[in-house]
C-alpha cells in the first residue's frame, strides 16, 4: 500500500548530543588546529573541500601552497610547499575521522576517511534521526524571507511562481537548521491602481442599479480581478474624465475614507483567495504583510532620511544619490506620493528594529537587483543597517521561457495562468499513472491516483525550477519535466519508491536492525554511497552559502545515481550482507525524503 513506513525518530531539533555538523566542518576544525600548531605565526583559515576524484582521497586540504608564499623570507621558512604540507599533517590532532593522508602535486593534502567513522555516522543518523545532521550555526537565528509577493488585482505570474518555489525551499532549509523563520508575503496591495479599480467598481454598480439590479456590493464585482483590472486600465488610459476620478479616488483612499477603504479591502480579499488557492496546492505557507502595512511609517522614514541628509531634493523629487549608481533612488515624488522603494525602506527598519531579524532575504527576479542594491545602500547610509547587525541578501532569479525561447506566454500572448499550468502538470501525471496501473493489471484507486498525480505534477514543476542555477533563464517544458528518465522529480520520486519497495519487501524492522547491526562498507560501491550520504549536510551548507536550492537538487540527483550504481553491483535481498545493505537502502530513502521535504515535494512510496 501507499502508507509510509515507520521511519526514524522524528526529532525536530537536534539535541546537543546528536548534532554533529558536517564531515567537512569537522575536518576543517582539525586542520584549523593543525595550522595553528604548525605555523603559529601566520593566521590561516582552513581550506577543506571534497576531492573531485575519489581515487585521490575523500577530502583535501589546500592550505600549504598559499601558506608557503606567506612564510617566504621569514626565519626558518620551509623550502617547498610540500614541507608545509608535511608539517600540517604532522600537527593533526588525534581523531577518529582520518584513516590516512597523502600528499599530491605541489602540496595538496589528501584525506581518506575512516570506514568505521562513516559507518558509525550513518548508524547514528538512523538511530537518532536526521535532525542531528542539520548545518550548525543557524539555530535560533531570526531569518526573514520575503518571497512570492504578487500584486493585488494583477496576474500572479510565473515570476511569482519562481519566487514562491525558491523562497519556500530557502525557508524549509533554514527551518531544518532550527532558525526562527518568518515567511513574509510582501503583497503589492497599495498603490495608485486602486483608484481606478474602485471607481470602475462604483460605475459598474451604478449601471447595475440603473438596469434594475441590486444596490449593494456583490461577489460578482470582484469575481474576475484580471478582467476588472483590464477594463479599469483601459478606461484609465482612454477616458480623461475617468482618469481624473481615479486620481481623486486614490487621494480619498490614502486619506482613509471609509467607503474607499471598504472597496479596497474587498479587492484585496478577492485577490487573497486566488493566491491562497495556489499556495495551498503548492503546500506553501506564508504570512501576508503587504505594502499597505508599512503605509503609516512612510512619512517618518522620509523625514528621517531628510534629517540625516541622506535624501535631497532634485528636480522636484526627493532623491538618494549613491556611489556606483548613475540614477538616484527616489523616495518621494513631487506630488508627495511615496514609492515602492520608500515602502522597502520602511520594511527594513521594521524588520530590523521590531522583528529583530538576523538575516533578511528577498526573493525576486534579477531585474530588481539594482532596486535592492540601492535600498540596502540607503538603509546603511541612514544607519538602519549596520555592519554588526542584520545581514541583507537579494536572491535574484532569471526568467521562465517558453519552448520558443521567448518569455513564457500563452498562444494568445497572455501571461500564463498559474492555476492552469498546475492543472496541466497534474493531469498529465494522472494519465501516466493510470496507464502504468493498467499495464500492471492493477485496480485504480482514484483517490490515490489524485494524490500521486498532485505530488508528481506539482513536484515536477517545482523541481524543474529549483534544479537550475537560480540566475539562469530556463525553458518551461512539460515534456522535459515529466520525463521518467533524467534529472526530474518524476524520476527521483520513482527512484525513492523503488528503494522503499526493497525495504518493504525485506519485512524487517530496519530501525531495530540499525541499533545493533554495524553497516559494513567493504564493497567500494557501499563506501561510495555511504560517504555521499554523509555529505548531505555539506550540500545544505553550500545551499545556504549561495542561497541556491540547486545545491540540494544536485545532491539528490547524485545520490540516486550513487544508489543505482551500488544496487547494480551489490545484491541486497537474500544476500549475506542483507541486513547491513538494507540499512544503506533505508539511509538513502531517509535522506532522499529529507531532500524532497526541503524542496517542497511529497514523496511517493509506490510506483
Ligand atoms: N510585488 C513585487 C513584484 O511583483 C515584489 C515584491 C518583492 N518584495 C519586496 N520587499 N520588494 O515585483
UniProtKB/TrEMBL annotation:
**EC numbers:** 6.1.1.19
| Keyword Zinc listed | no
A Gene Ontology biological process in which this protein takes part is: reproductive structure development
Q: Which InterPro entries match?
A: aa-tRNA-synth_I_CS, Arg-tRNA-ligase, Arg-tRNA-synth_N, Arg-tRNA-synth_N_sf, ArgRS_core, DALR_anticod-bd, Rossmann-like_a/b/a_fold, tRNAsynth_Ia_anticodon-bd
GO CC list: cytoplasm
* Listed Pfam families: Arg_tRNA_synt_N (PF03485), DALR_1 (PF05746), tRNA-synt_1d (PF00750)
Q: Where is the DALR anticodon binding domain?
A: 492-607
**Protein's name in the database:** arginine--tRNA ligase
Organism for this UniProt entry: Volvox africanus
Amino acid at each position: 500500500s501507499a502508507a509510509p513506513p515507520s521511519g526514524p525518530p522524528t526529532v525536530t531539533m537536534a539535541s546537543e548530543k546528536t548534532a554533529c555538523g558536517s564531515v567537512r566542518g569537522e575536518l576543517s576544525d582539525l586542520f584549523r588546529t593543525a595550522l595553528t600548531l604548525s605555523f603559529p605565526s601566520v593566521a590561516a583559515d582552513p581550506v577543506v573541500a571534497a576531492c573531485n576524484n575519489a581515487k585521490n582521497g575523500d577530502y583535501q586540504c589546500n592550505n600549504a601552497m598559499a601558506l608557503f608564499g606567506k612564510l617566504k623570507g621569514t626565519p626558518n621558512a620551509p623550502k617547498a610547499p610540500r614541507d608545509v604540507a608535511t608539517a600540517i599533517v604532522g600537527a593533526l590532532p588525534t581523531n577518529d575521522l582520518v584513516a590516512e593522508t597523502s600528499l599530491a602535486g605541489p602540496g595538496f593534502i589528501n584525506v581518506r576517511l575512516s570506514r568505521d567513522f562513516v559507518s558509525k555516522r550513518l548508524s547514528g543518523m538512523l538511530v537518532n534521526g536526521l535532525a542531528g545532521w542539520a548545518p550548525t550555526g543557524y539555530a535560533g537565528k531570526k531569518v526573514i524571507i520575503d518571497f512570492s509577493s504578487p500584486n493585488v488585482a494583477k496576474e500572479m505570474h510565473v515570476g511569482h511562481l519562481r519566487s514562491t518555489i525558491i523562497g519556500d525551499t530557502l525557508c524549509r532549509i533554514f527551518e531544518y537548521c532550527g532558525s526562527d523563520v518568518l515567511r513574509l508575503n510582501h503583497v503589492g496591495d497599495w498603490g495608485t491602481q486602486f483608484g481606478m479599480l474602485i471607481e470602475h467598481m462604483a460605475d459598474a454598480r451604478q449601471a447595475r442599479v440603473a438596469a434594475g439590479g441590486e444596490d449593494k456590493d456583490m461577489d460578482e464585482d470582484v469575481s474576475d480581478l484580471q478582467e476588472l483590472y483590464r477594463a479599469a486600465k483601459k478606461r484609465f488610459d482612454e477616458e480623461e474624465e475617468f482618469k481624473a476620478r481615479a486620481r481623486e479616488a486614490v487621494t480619498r483612499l490614502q486619506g482613509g475614507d471609509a467607503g474607499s477603504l471598504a472597496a479596497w479591502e474587498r479587492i484585496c480579499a478577492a485577490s487573497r483567495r486566488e493566491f491562497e488557492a495556489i499556495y495551498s496546492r503548492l503546500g506553501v505557507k506564508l504570512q501576508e504583510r503587504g505594502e499597505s502595512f508599512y503605509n503609516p511609517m512612510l512619512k517618518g522614514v522620509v523625514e528621517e532620511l531628510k534629517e540625516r541628509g541622506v535624501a535631497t531634493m532634485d528636480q522636484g523629487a526627493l532623491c538618494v544619490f549613491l556611489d556606483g549608481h548613475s540614477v538616484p533612488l527616489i523616495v518621494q515624488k513631487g506630488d508627495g506620493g511615496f514609492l515602492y522603494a520608500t515602502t522597502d525602506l520602511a520594511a527594513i527598519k521594521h524588520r530590523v528594529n521590531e522583528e529583530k531579524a538576523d538575516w533578511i532575504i528577498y526573493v525576486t527576479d534579477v531585474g530588481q537587483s539594482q532596486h535592492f542594491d540601492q535600498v540596502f545602500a540607503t538603509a546603511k547610509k541612514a544607519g538602519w543597517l549596520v555592519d554588526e547587525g542584520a545581514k541583507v541578501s537579494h536572491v535574484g532569479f532569471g526568467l521562465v521561457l517558453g519552448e520558443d525561447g521567448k518569455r513564457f506566454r500563452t498562444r494568445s500572448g497572455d501571461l500564463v495562468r498559474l492555476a492552469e499550468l498546475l492543472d496541466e502538470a497534474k493531469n498529465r501525471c494522472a494519465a501516466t499513472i493510470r496507464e502504468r496501473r493498467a499495464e500492471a493489471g492493477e485496480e485504480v484507486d482514484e483517490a490515490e491516483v489524485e494524490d500521486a498525480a498532485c505530488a508528481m505534477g506539482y513536484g515536477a514543476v517545482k523541481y524543474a525550477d529549483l534544479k537550475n542555477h537560480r540566475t539562469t533563464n530556463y525553458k518551461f517544458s512539460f515534456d522535459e519535466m515529466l520525463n521518467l528518465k533524467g534529472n526530474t522529480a518524476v524520476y527521483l520520486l520513482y527512484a525513492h519508491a523503488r528503494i522503499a519497495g526493497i525495504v518493504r519487501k525485506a519485512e524487517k524492522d530496519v530501525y531495530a536492525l540499525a541499533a545493533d547491526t554495524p553497516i559494513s562498507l567493504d564493497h567500494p560501491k557501499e563506501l561510495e554511497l555511504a560517504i555521499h550520504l554523509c555529505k548531505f549536510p555539506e550540500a545544505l551548507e553550500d545551499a545556504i552559502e549561495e542561497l541556491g536550492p540547486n545545491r540540494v537538487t544536485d545532491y539528490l540527483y547524485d545520490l540516486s545515481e550513487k544508489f543505482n550504481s551500488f544496487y547494480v553491483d551489490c545484491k541486497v535481498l537474500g544476500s549475506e550482507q542483507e541486513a547491513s545493505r538494507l540499512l544503506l537502502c533505508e539511509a538513502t530513502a531517509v535522506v532522499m525524503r529529507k531532500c524532497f521535504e526541503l524542496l517542497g515535494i511529497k514523496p511517493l512510496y509506490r510506483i
